[in-house]
Amino acid sequence: MEVHSRDYAKRARAILRDTPGVREAVTAATRSFDDHRRSAFAELDGEALRDWAEGVKSHALTHLDRYLEQAESRLMERGAHVHWAETAEDVHRILRELVEREGVRRAVKAKSMLSEEVGVNPLLEAEGVEVFETDLGEYIIQLLGEPPSHIVGPAIHRSLEDTQALFSERLGTATDASPEELAGAARGILREAFLAADLGISGGNFLVAETGSIALIENEGNIRMSTSLPRVHVALVGIEKILPRLADLSTFLQVTSKSATGQPVGTFVSIIQGPGGSRGGEPDGPEELHVVLVDNGRTRLLADPEAWEALRCVRCGACLNICPVYRQTGGHAYGYVYSGPIGAVISPGLVSLEETFPLPFASSLCGACAEVCPVRIPIPHLLHTWRERAVEQGLTEGTARSLMKGWSRAATHPRLFDWIERAMAVLPDGISRRLPMLRDWTRGRSLPRATGPTFREIWKDGIE
Amino acid sequence: MKVSLFVTCIGDRFYAEASADAVRLLRSLDVEVDFPMGQTCCGQPAWNSGHLPEARRMAEHTLAVLKDAEYVVLPSGSCAAMLRCTYPHLLGRRELSDRSYELAQFIVDILGVHELGRGLEGRRLAYHHGCHALRELGVREQPEQLLRSGGAELVPWEMDQECCGFGGLFSVKTPEVSTAMADRKLDTLPAAETIVSADGGCLLQLESRARYRGLNLEFRSLASTLWEARRGSP
Lengths: 464, 234
Ligand code: SF4
Prior knowledge:
The structure holds two protein chains of two kinds.
Chain A lengths: L7 H11 L1 H23 L3 H17 L1 H14 L3 E5 L2 H15 L3 E4 L3 H6 L1 H7 L3 E4 L2 H9 L15 H12 L7 H18 L2 E4 L3 E3 L4 E6 L3 H7 L3 E7 L3 E2 L2 H16 L6 E5 L4 H4 L7 E7 L3 H5 L15 H5 L3 H4 L10 H11 L2 H4 L11 H5 L6 H14 L5 H14 L2 H13 L2 H4 L3 H6 L13 H7 L3
Parallel strand pairs in A: 1-10, 2-3, 2-4, 4-7, 5-8, 7-10
Antiparallel strand pairs in A: 5-6, 6-9
Helix pairs in contact in A: 1-2, 2-12, 3-12, 9-10, 17-20
Chain B lengths: L1 E4 L2 H6 L2 H13 L3 E3 L9 H5 L3 H14 L5 E4 L2 H15 L8 E3 H8 L13 E5 L2 H6 L4 H9 L3 E2 L15 H4 L1 H13 L6 E4 L2 H13 L5 E4 H10 L3
The complex binds iron/sulfur cluster.
């Protein structure tokens, strides 16, 4: 996916100004997700679970080579093809070859953030393949030609009315169709696509090293169909998705589902071990299973001792749901597939800090994300790390840098500091409004009142 | 008992009277208050904006100014969090951190005082929890308890723990998002006469937005409100 993160501030402003409904839709949906998460964890020892989940993920990541090779052997034993893709271009090459060899005309896709990250749809379309997103949310944004705005709910920024209007125009449903009727209309089209498709593409929530199992969580049943009906199934799996043992999986399925939607476990969980059909010796399932293990910046991030922890992420979206900054705009402001708090700390690692620069600053550092993350990613700490690097690399604005230099100088010279504090009270508003930072402050806010004596002056006069 | 008051840059400039109320309150609780004159800013603006060397310099300055303090009390949750939680990281030592407290935290946890007086009888207050006091210091009960014991009714506010949108430089880099966050707080506010908070930054943000929108609300620091509880009349 193209990266537009440098425009974060501009995009955020445009969303708030031009499409105020987005703020309402996103706030309502994320608050409801978050309420459900809260009640799901209410009867559990959430802290113990998070300790455990953090430990397993960190262990897996620090022994990644070993577990990936183990997973590869298990998968190959069962007749799956395993591909290693270092970059997005490698994924493209693998898919292109497959499309040509198998004569693929139609593909159905299960929701996968990784496929957005590496740009699967544009590639397939350029190869003349008709692509159907089969997750309802993904289907909506495909019709709109938009990227996902949330890791779990890609169309979270659209209200029911938006979708009613869209479906009525594109699929001919009634303008007041119920959610069930809308889903029914999409289902009608997608059912045919499932049967006609020769390729199914999915992601993978987890890859179990011990058994070579790919696990997928969903609520609609479309992932199960995308991965079992077409002749060929390609699973794109980020290398950080590895879990050591099958026993780990059962708890991770629950922790992830609870954190994402508050469900005890997703409505459907598919565990894929290998191909079926004639080649796999099973009566059902695809004839070919291709597992593409995707790096695309992950190894580089893993080697970064100050930022690697973001790779523990299980993409539950809990940090987005609780984030007051994300709630105002939804994900499109962030200009990349991963948005919200996790997007702000993982995108600089996966892409580069230069290209995603202001994202680590797209936070008030309130710390709410760190409290909900099921794998204890220290998001505020990582935001600080990326901010320090941005300053070191000269990516931030000169005015902010000089201001901080000047302020720290004043703060280490108490008399100068005292003078500045007193001067603020006598500065005419007309001038204050023109000063660099205050000018931006007054976009939507009154000037703060700095009148009367400072505390220092009061203290000198004596307090009774 | 003797404490050194650290009023912080915002407290010195924008909440000078509130800082004086903190002195009055502490003295009324038989605490001797001293104000080391060399104190300035804790360094949080630099730390939050990624200017590590500058933040470290300011932390070292503060450490030097407050080195003899028995206790350091701050009428600011986020600056108290800076001293308690960030200084060890910046300075590589904890000596100042373990002696530093936010005002309400100090009164309840160290002085063991749970009731100040009934000066808030009949008042309807909404309490805004600053993020750093809440999540870094773990201060939640203490201010609420002191306000209630003063006779105030704390109105239930579903967004009382959500960020006000200040965030230092964040508020001027993305003013539209920042003010939208403030609006979410203000628009969910139940009928209350006054909004109280331990953090000057949050109060500046919420008050400036409310005034810009022409909302008729009163914003008051925790220190002044607690002194009101103690003193008995407004
Ligand atoms: S960072 Fe944590 S909370 Fe956010 S999506 Fe990843 S696992 Fe979930």
